[in-house]
Amino acid sequence: MTTKILRGQALTFKADPFLVGDDQSFQYESDALVMIEDGKIKSFGSYASLKDSIPEGSEVTDYKNSLIIPGFVDTHVHYPQTEIIGAYGKQLLDWLNNYTFVAEQKFADKNHATEVAKVFIKESLRSGTTTSLVFGTVHEHSVDALFEEAEKLNLRMVAGKVLMDRNAPPALLDTAQKGYDESKALIKRWHGKGRLSYAITPRFAPTSTPEQLKMAGELWKEHPGTYVQTHISENLGEIAWVKELFPERSDYLDVYDHYGLLGERSLYAHGVHLTESEWARMHKCGAAVCHCSTSNQFLGSGLFSFEKAKDKTRPVKTGLGTDIGAGTSFSHLQTMNESYKIGQLSGYSLSSLKAFYLATKGGAESLYMEDKVGSIAPGMEADLVVLDLKSTPLMDFRMGFCKDINEVLFILMTLGDDRATESVYVAGEKVYGK
Amino acid sequence: MTTKILRGQALTFKADPFLVGDDQSFQYESDALVMIEDGKIKSFGSYASLKDSIPEGSEVTDYKNSLIIPGFVDTHVHYPQTEIIGAYGKQLLDWLNNYTFVAEQKFADKNHATEVAKVFIKESLRSGTTTSLVFGTVHEHSVDALFEEAEKLNLRMVAGKVLMDRNAPPALLDTAQKGYDESKALIKRWHGKGRLSYAITPRFAPTSTPEQLKMAGELWKEHPGTYVQTHISENLGEIAWVKELFPERSDYLDVYDHYGLLGERSLYAHGVHLTESEWARMHKCGAAVCHCSTSNQFLGSGLFSFEKAKDKTRPVKTGLGTDIGAGTSFSHLQTMNESYKIGQLSGYSLSSLKAFYLATKGGAESLYMEDKVGSIAPGMEADLVVLDLKSTPLMDFRMGFCKDINEVLFILMTLGDDRATESVYVAGEKVYGK
């Protein structure tokens, strides 16, 4: 059995800093060893404490000037929208009609889907993201295309075909029955295969009939362990539309709850305008919110509230999402940069530790995968990203003035981008190197 | 006489798109020649129209996949704050006390100033910025250090020593008389030397006594052609403080006006919270506002209004500022990205043409330098940046879906950063190449 050993600075989280405070949340080693066997972490600790346990003849990869952290977890992203990043001038509903629904129609061609899936995975890895929760298109084979590529690299990934049977171009509509059948076939084909999982994926309430939402809820009940992913309360126009379409429901979240789409392993993107009672219900049900900062700014959706999401009396599981293509970067470093700014604009200073938590363990907890990915500890799967602390001349200069790991992390998220990704390991295998 | 010739796509502005509309504002050549002689542009136009005028034996540099535009103009930046980019957790007034005033004290040592000036100029050029309006520190030699480095590269630059005689640490205070004398000495030494100009630089109203503001106004009057640079209405706490310190003045701008610091060649950073009457007065006096998007977000200062600044009934000259170190990027591409987001959050979609105008000709007009820099036309100084349209794999992929120059520019500002800077020319000389 070969042991792979990485040496460098390392950081991981042991608890949620929003709940236990920054100081109690993390483990930082200024000179760490990460020992990997069979795709899992065998041991992790200071070099001094572990050096005597290095098996004879093992090769140690020394990442000087670098920080080893868990691979980033992207809890909300649309791979078919890779080609419309940076589409100009619209807010949510117009943006869907003018750009998204146009791009997604091209996925009727599976070759196109495969081509974009390859770009998507490459860009995710270039940015240090090793696990993603991904929307396909309405086309069943859009998920096949993605999972076929993910499987080659043994990625831990969750994805699903979009369910949409109204309020979209005819070419992008399924029916309640067709959506159910195709999703079920995909679950059978992919869920639990290697490191892949399936997410039942109604796009959002306005594009599914009550019948489709009902069948989606039933499908979820029939397949424990699968996920639900959708959108909620991103934009005020969207919320008004949901109210119009579902006047009998008490609020937006109640629509999903009513149709059996709320619970553990359900992840809701955005939640910019959630009400207090919606937050409380999400907490109670173990659902998660996916905060997508670059997207919320790019579409002018509004300012997410970290204080509401993480209210200690009823904290809600929270992950970070790039939301490509409304988001403007695959990099969680850039996403954190924007999250900080969103906090500042609403009078809340997001600490670097909290931001890195959201981007790693927070995402894993949102996916109920905290026993598998999102931190560095014995028994965890070895999904790691090595961040170059001197990845640009300016970062190199600026790091010279940092006094502690908080500052180092803050400089990484303020000045860093995909160039900071030195190496990426997936289940112990190096899949990307600068 | 040697003729230097660049070939590539090229874009420049002929008028303000906020006033004449996007379509009437620009000149785009899909295959252009820029002919340079003696540091100035001799001719500019399509390759087809100019190819017969290429002097025999001239070398033509062919920038394939690139866009030649005027060098970026940064209308607001603090070079001494290069080392505090990404300092965590504060809004304006605390940020000054906790970070800025600490960093600026190190500039008592001129060697330190020179070291930072070198980094600053290098980073500006790496980002394609060829002209900047720069704050030094209170130390007279901080400006010498910067200008000495700028002179070596023949940069068109404007800078000034900070005037500050109250409300800052003692080590950073001058007096009204000392500030006047030192500024005057710097004007004599540097203003009009090569391409350098001087800016009288009261930091902002709260850190100067009425006496100092008065003497600054007198100094400006004595030296026509020099500039005034300062801050205005960045943050609500700051505005309240100004009201407290100058209860007799009608508003923030009135403080500067009263002391003779308002007029053509006066540039005010931020203006996030200006009132209608302040905007109108700035228009009337020919003053300019410097919009600093990454900084306004990073410090949570608020959302700048393009619609107010560029109200057609009383448009105000407007440039773009990085505001390093409260700003988070030297790159005007990244600054435009954030400007777009600020617009979106307040319901205004900033077009890519308007953004590029602000970053080039808009800045030059704010500095009353539109006859020298900020556009590509015969007789203009040859300050140019060549932008690589395929500077990252993602940008390369995304550019494949662009239909026109508007989209190309929008992708540049959404996905671009310093990597997009292919080459930089200053007065016709190549000073940076990737």
Structure write-up:
2 copies of one chain form a homodimer. Chain A is α/β, with parallel strands linked by helices. The first copy, chain A, folds into 2 domains: about 5-70 and about 375-434, Urease, subunit C, domain 1, CATH 2.30.40; about 70-330, TIM Barrel. Chain A has 16 helices and 16 strands. Chain A has helices spanning about 15-20, 45-50, 90-105, 110-125, 140-150, 175-190, 210-220, 235-245, 250-260, 275-285, 295-300, 305-310, 330-345, 350-365, 395-400, 405-415, and strands spanning about 5-15, 25-35, 40-45, 60-70, 70-80, 130-135, 155-160, 160-165, 195-200, 225-230, 265-270, 290, 315-320, 385-390, 420-425, 430-434. In chain A, strands 5, 6, 7, 8, 9, 10, 11, 12 and 13 form a 9-stranded parallel sheet that branches. A 7-stranded mixed sheet of chain A has the order 3-2-1-4-14-15-16. In chain A, a hairpin with a 2-residue loop joins strand 2 (about 25-35) and strand 3. The first copy, chain A, starts with a strand and ends with a strand. Chains A and B meet through helix 4, helix 13, helix 15 and helix 16 of A and helix 4, helix 13, helix 16 and helix 17 of B.
